[in-house]
Specification:
Largest sheet: 4 strands, antiparallel
Mean pLDDT: 91
Strand order of the largest sheet: 2-3-1-4
CATH topology of the largest domain: Alpha-Beta Plaits
Low-confidence stretches: none
Structural class: alpha+beta
Distance between the termini: 45 Å
CATH class of the largest domain: Alpha Beta
CATH superfamily of the largest domain: ACT-like. Chain A, domain 2
Helix content: 40-55%
CATH architecture of the largest domain: 2-Layer Sandwich
Number of strands: 4
Strand content: 25-35%
Order of helices and strands: HHEHEEHE
Radius of gyration: 17 Å
Length: 130
Protein backbone atom coordinates (compact mmCIF):
# COMPACT_ATOMS: atom_id res chain seq x y z
CA UNK A 1 0.00 0.00 0.00
CA UNK A 2 1.27 3.47 -0.83
CA UNK A 3 0.91 6.40 1.54
CA UNK A 4 2.28 9.92 1.83
CA UNK A 5 3.54 11.82 4.86
CA UNK A 6 4.42 15.42 5.63
CA UNK A 7 7.85 15.37 7.28
CA UNK A 8 10.14 18.35 7.84
CA UNK A 9 13.09 18.20 5.42
CA UNK A 10 15.73 18.12 8.17
CA UNK A 11 14.01 15.13 9.81
CA UNK A 12 13.78 13.30 6.48
CA UNK A 13 17.44 14.05 5.74
CA UNK A 14 18.47 12.65 9.13
CA UNK A 15 16.25 9.59 8.63
CA UNK A 16 17.78 8.96 5.20
CA UNK A 17 21.32 9.33 6.57
CA UNK A 18 20.52 6.86 9.34
CA UNK A 19 18.97 4.06 7.28
CA UNK A 20 21.62 4.40 4.59
CA UNK A 21 24.42 4.20 7.20
CA UNK A 22 22.79 1.02 8.53
CA UNK A 23 22.88 -0.52 5.06
CA UNK A 24 19.13 -0.94 4.58
CA UNK A 25 18.02 -1.25 0.99
CA UNK A 26 15.35 1.46 0.92
CA UNK A 27 13.51 4.24 2.72
CA UNK A 28 10.38 2.04 2.57
CA UNK A 29 12.14 -0.75 4.48
CA UNK A 30 13.43 1.72 7.07
CA UNK A 31 9.95 3.25 7.42
CA UNK A 32 8.39 -0.18 8.01
CA UNK A 33 10.97 -0.91 10.72
CA UNK A 34 10.34 2.47 12.35
CA UNK A 35 6.59 1.84 12.35
CA UNK A 36 7.07 -1.60 13.89
CA UNK A 37 9.31 -0.14 16.62
CA UNK A 38 6.69 2.53 17.34
CA UNK A 39 3.97 -0.12 17.65
CA UNK A 40 6.12 -2.26 19.96
CA UNK A 41 6.97 0.71 22.19
CA UNK A 42 3.33 1.82 22.38
CA UNK A 43 2.10 -1.74 23.06
CA UNK A 44 4.66 -2.10 25.86
CA UNK A 45 3.55 1.22 27.36
CA UNK A 46 -0.07 0.03 27.34
CA UNK A 47 0.73 -3.43 28.75
CA UNK A 48 2.34 -2.35 32.04
CA UNK A 49 -0.06 -2.53 34.97
CA UNK A 50 0.02 -2.05 38.72
CA UNK A 51 2.47 -0.20 40.93
CA UNK A 52 5.69 0.76 39.14
CA UNK A 53 8.67 3.06 39.26
CA UNK A 54 9.40 4.95 36.05
CA UNK A 55 11.77 7.43 34.47
CA UNK A 56 10.16 9.66 31.85
CA UNK A 57 12.70 11.54 29.72
CA UNK A 58 11.72 14.21 27.21
CA UNK A 59 13.17 17.14 25.28
CA UNK A 60 11.40 20.41 24.61
CA UNK A 61 11.82 23.95 23.36
CA UNK A 62 11.98 25.88 26.63
CA UNK A 63 10.42 29.22 25.73
CA UNK A 64 7.44 27.70 23.93
CA UNK A 65 6.16 25.33 26.59
CA UNK A 66 7.76 25.80 30.02
CA UNK A 67 4.66 27.28 31.68
CA UNK A 68 2.40 24.50 30.44
CA UNK A 69 4.92 21.83 31.49
CA UNK A 70 5.03 23.22 35.02
CA UNK A 71 1.23 23.05 35.15
CA UNK A 72 1.24 19.41 34.01
CA UNK A 73 3.91 18.51 36.54
CA UNK A 74 1.83 20.02 39.34
CA UNK A 75 -1.20 18.03 38.16
CA UNK A 76 0.86 14.84 38.53
CA UNK A 77 2.65 15.64 41.80
CA UNK A 78 0.98 12.55 43.32
CA UNK A 79 3.32 10.34 41.24
CA UNK A 80 6.33 12.60 40.58
CA UNK A 81 9.14 12.12 43.05
CA UNK A 82 11.81 14.33 41.53
CA UNK A 83 12.98 15.82 38.25
CA UNK A 84 16.30 16.52 36.56
CA UNK A 85 16.66 19.34 34.09
CA UNK A 86 19.42 20.21 31.61
CA UNK A 87 19.53 23.37 29.47
CA UNK A 88 21.00 23.20 25.98
CA UNK A 89 20.37 26.53 24.28
CA UNK A 90 16.66 26.91 23.56
CA UNK A 91 16.13 23.18 24.07
CA UNK A 92 16.00 21.37 27.39
CA UNK A 93 16.21 17.76 28.44
CA UNK A 94 14.18 16.72 31.46
CA UNK A 95 13.79 13.46 33.32
CA UNK A 96 10.88 12.92 35.69
CA UNK A 97 11.19 10.10 38.21
CA UNK A 98 7.81 8.66 39.14
CA UNK A 99 6.31 6.04 41.36
CA UNK A 100 2.70 4.94 41.38
CA UNK A 101 0.14 3.21 39.24
CA UNK A 102 1.22 2.53 35.65
CA UNK A 103 -2.07 3.93 34.37
CA UNK A 104 -1.36 7.29 36.02
CA UNK A 105 2.17 7.41 34.61
CA UNK A 106 0.74 6.64 31.15
CA UNK A 107 -1.56 9.67 31.53
CA UNK A 108 1.49 11.84 32.20
CA UNK A 109 3.35 10.44 29.18
CA UNK A 110 0.37 11.07 26.88
CA UNK A 111 -0.05 14.64 28.13
CA UNK A 112 3.62 15.38 27.52
CA UNK A 113 3.39 13.93 24.00
CA UNK A 114 0.49 16.28 23.21
CA UNK A 115 2.71 19.38 23.22
CA UNK A 116 4.04 20.46 19.81
CA UNK A 117 7.15 21.95 21.46
CA UNK A 118 8.03 18.58 23.04
CA UNK A 119 10.28 16.56 20.74
CA UNK A 120 10.37 13.04 22.15
CA UNK A 121 9.03 11.37 25.27
CA UNK A 122 10.55 8.07 26.36
CA UNK A 123 9.60 6.05 29.40
CA UNK A 124 11.36 3.23 31.20
CA UNK A 125 9.34 1.19 33.70
CA UNK A 126 10.69 -0.82 36.58
CA UNK A 127 8.12 -3.21 37.95
CA UNK A 128 8.66 -5.08 41.20
CA UNK A 129 8.80 -8.85 40.87
CA UNK A 130 6.14 -10.51 42.99
Amino acid sequence: MRTSLNIPQEVLDSFDDTWQAQGLESRSRASREAIHEYIERHTELEAVEGAVVAAVAFDYEHTLVIGELHTVQHEFEDIIGTTQHLHHGEWCLETIFCSGQASRIRELVYQLRDFDAVGRVNVMFLQPVE
